[in-house]
Specification:
Elements lengths: L1 E7 L7 E6 L7 E10 L2 H7 L11 E2 L3 E9 L11 E5 L12 E4 L2 E4 L9 E5 L3 E3 L15 H6 L1 H4 L8 E5 L3 H13 L3 E5 L3 H10 L3 E3 L7 H9 L3 E6 L4 H6 L4 E9 L13 H5 L3 E4 L7 H12 L3 H6 L4 E2 L4 H9 L7 E3 L1
Parallel strand pairs: 11-12, 11-14, 12-13, 14-15, 15-16, 17-18
Antiparallel strand pairs: 1-2, 1-4, 3-5, 3-9, 3-18, 5-6, 6-10, 7-8
């Protein structure tokens, strides 16, 4: 079978649309028809060579999608033909199948256990999550990455339930999802920080109490204390930039926690004053919001689908596969929160 896919052939070059093919499904593989897929900053890092040496070129990309099961390989029992699923990079139950190998003529096109920038895709069973009544939730591809990575923290991070004042640093798809999770699942006041005024306004509209625009005239910690009277108990760092991560400890009090959910480019390292840690501050990472997709995704879908203001943030920029490079450019320039490719 042949179908169109967006292929990364060269680092720092546009993706190439071409027809790829495969022969058979192997053990634990699921053949999906992609309905829509989101573009994540992680893919932009891969395209721009910010994940280190890429030994898999040429290869496919994408790790969040709404899809329909077309066929299943040997051993697959989790999903059935005709069911709609969320394809996600966050590992769930099921077989961890070997990544598919596609072809263009005799050339091998590599992929991972989940790739979604194509009309169809072969994914590993453990990267497919079945959600009952998925159509009712009006939530699509971002359920595979941005939404659970952000919202999931409010379900899995124990300290978050005790916090009174939480900061969110960076208002992309993950940051906005973290905001909604905190609003829905805790009683904390939320302060949001971003370099884009329109995103701050949207966050306030969602329910944030304070907003802070970084200024060259006044430090962020000074702004936060001046406006709210205190520093944060917890900061959720969502920018993916090393400068923001390095400075995030200055935004919490001495018993506070920085939880970072994105990772900066390859080769960037934390530079922390050890005295900050001696005083009692903590910093730690999060892998996909700490969620169990089989347990948490349906609950998250049901909660976010009740907030139309939130849904509108993820349904404002649709593109065709042929225009995927325009979508990537729009995300790079922060013109859209989460570009969605619809098939």
């Amino acid at each position: 079978m042949k179908f169109k896919a967006a292929i990364l052939r060269e680092i720092k070059k546009p993706l190439v649309i071409d027809e790829i093919s495969f022969e058979n499904l192997n053990y634990g593989q699921v053949f999906l028809k992609i309905i829509e897929t989101g573009i994540c900053r992680s893919q932009i890092f891969e395209i721009d060579g910010l994940r280190g040496h890429d030994k898999w070129l040429p290869h496919l990309l994408g790790h969040e999608a709404l899809a329909e099961v077309i066929d299943i390989g040997p051993g697959v029992t989790k999903v059935k033909v005709g069911e709609k699923v969320i394809a996600t990079w966050i590992k769930s139950s099921g077989i961890s199948a070997e990544p598919a190998k596609y072809k263009i003529g005799k050339q091998i096109i590599n992929s991972g256990r989940v790739t979604t920038f194509s009309e169809f895709s072969i994914c590993s069973e453990d990267r497919c999550v079945l959600i009952r009544n998925l159509d009712e939730y009006e939530v699509g591809a971002p359920l595979g990455c941005a939404i659970p990575t952000g919202y999931g923290l409010s379900l899995t991070l124990k300290d978050i339930k005790k916090a009174n004042f939480i900061g969110i640093l960076g208002l992309g798809g993950i940051g906005m999802s973290a905001l909604l999770g905190i609003i829905n699942e805790t009683n904390a006041n939320v302060g949001v920080i971003d370099i884009k005024k329109d995103r701050l306004e949207k966050a306030l509209n969602l329910g944030a109490k304070y907003s802070f625009l970084p200024s060259s005239k006044k430090g962020l910690s000074e702004q936060i204390i001046e406006e709210s009277g205190r520093l944060f108990d917890i900061v959720i760092e969502c920018t993916g930039t090393i400068n923001a991560l390095n400075n995030s400890l200055s935004l919490i009090h001495d018993n506070g926690l920085v939880k970072f959910v994105t990772h900066p480019p390859y080769g960037n390292f934390l530079e922390i004053d050890p005295f900050e840690l001696i005083k009692g501050k903590k910093i730690e990472g999060s892998w996909g919001g700490g969620i169990d997709p089989d347990k948490h995704l349906e609950y998250i879908a049901s909660k976010v689908s009740r907030n139309q203001k939130f849904l509108d943030l993820f349904t404002s920029a649709y593109y065709k596969l042929e225009n995927i490079n325009q979508a990537i450019d729009a995300m790079k320039k922060m013109k859209t929160l989460r570009p969605i490719i619809r098939f």
